[in-house]
Fold each of these.
Amino acid sequence: MLEGLSSTAQPTASNLGPNHLAAEGLATLTATCEKQSFENARTGLIVSQTGLREDVFALRSRTYSSVAFSLDAALKLEEVLRNELKDKKQPGEQRECVQQFEGYLETLTDPLVEQDKLSKELDASAFKDSTKEAQEELKREKETEEMAPKK
């Protein structure tokens, strides 16, 4: 009974991986862009935009299920779309649609990438400050020990 339930579970970035998700996303986007404009495709394909690192957005797959993309998977999809635009010569409207999707995904991921960068800088700064504070505390303790009368 549990086997049947697990097969209907929604695919996510954690159980498929960014490369598989990027390939699926590319196939979905290019197929949809063959038939629709970017605005119509975006409305039909982007199920949600949480703006969270874990689930930046959810894309409707070709099987109509919703697939959540983590930041890593979304960045991989951007890269794959850029490469697709460089390597292949799609017809003008399809190419424009794919290009707009790549730009749209950047607007979703860039703030999160910047947030990660700032967070890492703050973490590094806090680590340096705590290390310096610990060294000063050791120095004060040593000075206190030296000044204390010896028995």
Note: The helical segments are 2-7, 13-16, 18-35, 38-45, 71-87, 92-147.
Amino acid sequence: MDDAKIEARLEPDRKGRMVHARVSADEYAAIERAAKAADMTVSGFFRSLIIEGAGARPFLTEEERLVMALLLEDMRAIGVNLNQVARALNSGKGVHPSDVDINL
């Protein structure tokens, strides 16, 4: 998968609505520390927590999203290979062990 596709998938939608919440100075400081630790903005961190709490989407950092996108691409490639093996076996063709290349 090329980097442009990954970046396009990770690009956030334009946010048009605002949610207001009042917190104490201590609470805000704790939120800022947690957001910084997650390498996120306060807004993005707070939004992720709210959405995760609603069960709509898991809490992931940008780095974790990139890793997930790369893993998804690898899983697709494995699926393609598995389908080719299944097609060969179902058509009556044998698969010689030397034809199976496993990269770990």
Note: DSSP finds four helices and no strands in the chain.
